[in-house]
Amino acid sequence: MIELRTPAELEGLRAAGRFVADVLDELLETVDVGVNLLDLDRVAARMIADRGAVSCYVDYHPSFGNSPFGKNLCTSVNDAALHGLPYDRALVDGDLVSLDFAASVDGWVADSAVTVQVGTARDEDQRLIATVERALAAGIEQFRPGNKLGDVSYAIGHVAKDAGYSVNTQFGGHGVGRTMHGDPHVPNDGRPGRGLKLRPGLVVAIEPWLMQGTDELVQDEDGWTLKSVDGSRAAHVEHTVAVTDAGPEVLTLRRAQRAEATA
């Protein structure tokens, strides 16, 4: 069921979005060569506890997961594209890591992700990150009253394919509100002018993700982490966004993005 949020409900979602953004800001400051993935998860756990928030991941057990997730954060490294289950691994120079975080604050959920290079940057990784970030911006730009959901999906897919990447539509964006995953599904490719008409109050997480050499996934033996079938590296970005009368409102802008928006 697709729900449209009232102005009062959007206030709750804004608070959740700000908290999720603050956690990702802290994680981005923590990521470095030698930092363990479990340390990153502990940062998220501490901030959840300090805020009195609730993890959306610890007890999460959808049909595609072999067991409850059990951690507070997704850490997808190198060829891991999505749902990276944190484990005892220290980041090394040249790693590419995606951080995906969702939490409930006073009953309202926000979801966001960012991909960052660790230590020495690779040109091909920089290009991949730049492409998913452009795709996210293009999708957000279309998330406005009167447009169709297909306009959002098409904008994302067009950026990705124009840059030479193939697009997987199995996993994509989704509605958020009282729960982390709800209707509608937002594919990362589609046909313009098709699908749900966008109206003020609709809130979704828009999340492009791409792999350098394929659009096919394989599940890791941990029962959660989804990796590229050919071992190529992946990048994933995401924002929770609301349709308003004035256009799209990004609820999970991080500190640098907020500063850029007001500059």
Written overview of the protein:
The chain has 263 residues and is α+β, with helices and mostly antiparallel strands. The protein has helices at 7-30, 37-51, 123-141, 149-162, 255-262; strands at residues 54-55, 74-77, 80-82, 96-105, 108-117, 173-175, 182-186, 203-206, 209-211, 217-219, 226-228, 234-236, 239-244, 247-250. A hairpin with a 6-residue loop joins β6 (173-175) and β7. It is globular. The protein is built from 5 helices and 14 strands. A 5-stranded antiparallel sheet has the order 7-6-8-13-14. A divalent metal cation 1 binds at residues 100, 111, 238. Monomer.
The gist of it:
The chain has 263 residues and is α+β, with helices and mostly antiparallel strands. The chain has helices spanning 7-30, 37-51, 123-141, 149-162, 255-262; strands at residues 54-55, 74-77, 80-82, 96-105, 108-117, 173-175, 182-186, 203-206, 209-211, 217-219, 226-228, 234-236, 239-244, 247-250.
Structure keywords:
263 residues; alpha+beta; 5-stranded antiparallel β-sheet; 4-stranded antiparallel β-sheet; 5 helices; 30% helix; globular; Creatinase/aminopeptidase-like; EC 3.4.11.18
Rg of Cα set: 17 Å
Poorly predicted spans: none
Distance between the termini: 38 Å
Estimate the global geometry from the Cα principal axes.
globular
Strand order of the largest sheet: 7-6-8-13-14
Oligomerization status of the protein chains? single chain
Instruction: Give the overall average pLDDT.
Output: 97
Count of individual beta strands: 14
Strand content: 15-25%
Largest sheet: 5 strands, antiparallel
Q: Enumerate how many helices there are, as a single number.
A: 5
Question: Pairing-aware structural class of the strands and helices?
Answer: alpha+beta
